[in-house]
Amino acid sequence: MAQQNQDTAGVTIEDMAPQARFSLRVRPEQRAALAAVLGLDLPERIGTRASAEAGEALCLGPDEWLVIARDGAALTQAARASDIPHSLSDISDREISLRLSGPGVLDLLSAGCPRDLASIPPGGGARTLFESATVVLWRDGETDFRMDIWRSFTPQVRSVLEQARIDIAAGL
Q: How many Å apart are CA 23 and CA 92, to the nearest integer?
């Protein structure tokens, strides 16, 4: 992890190690069959996620999942061997992930996100906006989030997060 910061705002922001990340699209009626082929659990409800030996999947839409694979090559090979129509796109290089944790994390994220973040349950997630950047938030615990950001928006998102930390620490 390249960078970690914590201050009196009570939030730690750290870079996460790169991961094999995929965008998966499959028709709802073929979801279960493809999930079995890939060795993944693909949740049906938007905003829910599931873990399996092959990785973790977050449902972003009725036919769309963000997949974090433990072995990207194995997942790709299983997908290629399948005769189930689907789209599996490797987006590993498109995004970086930050871990945001601590008692002030909801305040920090609310500085740039219009969504009611407290309504995302631990174990859930959502695609949303942070300032003008599209991000995916994974809520790992009451005070723990992961944020996936397109690389080109990373400087902007980091700037807003750092300013929000300063403001929270100052009681603004």
A: 9
Q: Which band of pLDDT confidence, cut at 50, 70 and 90, is reported for residue 9?
A: low
CATH 1.10.10.10 at 20-90, yes or no: no
Task: Supply the pLDDT for residue 166.
Answer: 87
1 pLDDT above the threshold of 50: no
Rounded to two decimals, the pTM is 0.89
The arrangement of secondary structure in 4-17+94-169, i.e. its CATH architecture, is: 2-Layer Sandwich (3.30)
Q: Which amino acid is at 148?
A: D
CA–CA separation, 64 vs 24, rounded Å?
6
Q: Chain-centre distance of CA 26, in angstroms?
A: 19
Contact of 69 with 121, CB cutoff 8 Å: no
Helices 72-81 & 31-38, crossing angle to 10 degrees?
A: 130
